[in-house]
Amino acid sequence: MWGRETQRWSRFDFEGPARDGYAVTGRSGTMISPPWYAHVEIFAGICGNKDGIETMPDGEFLSTLGIELR
C-alpha cells in the first residue's frame, strides 16, 4: 500500500547521474514540467504538505490523511 504520498523529483535528482559520472547523454538535465506534475498529483489524489524544501519541491497536494488509532 502506497498511502497516496509521493515526492516530486527536484533538480538535484535530475543532476545526480551527471554529477556522479554516469549520465546518459541527450537526456541528462531534463526535468519533467511542473504543470505535468500538478496534473498527475490532482488526478491521482496525492496527499502532502507544502514545506518549501528545495530538495522536495512543493506540489498540488490534497491535505494529509489523518491517522486514526483504535
What portion of residues belong to β-strands? under 5%
Q: Point out poorly predicted stretches.
A: none
Percent in helix:
25-40%
How large is the count of helical segments?
2
Q: What is the end-to-end distance?
A: 20 Å
Succession of helices and strands: HH
Q: What is the β-strand count?
A: 0
Shape: elongated
- Give Rg in angstroms: 15 Å
Main beta sheet: strand number and arrangement? none
Please identify the structural class as seen in this structure. mainly alpha
Mean pLDDT: 77
Describe this structure in words.
The protein is mainly alpha-helical. Helix content is 30%, strand content 0%. It contains 2 helices and no strands. It is elongated. The mean pLDDT is 77.
Summarize the structure.
By secondary structure, the protein is mostly helical. Helix content is 30%, strand content 0%.
Set out the fold topology.
Blueprint: H1 11-20, H2 34-44
Characteristic terms for this protein:
single chain, 70 residues, mainly alpha, 2 helices, 0% strand
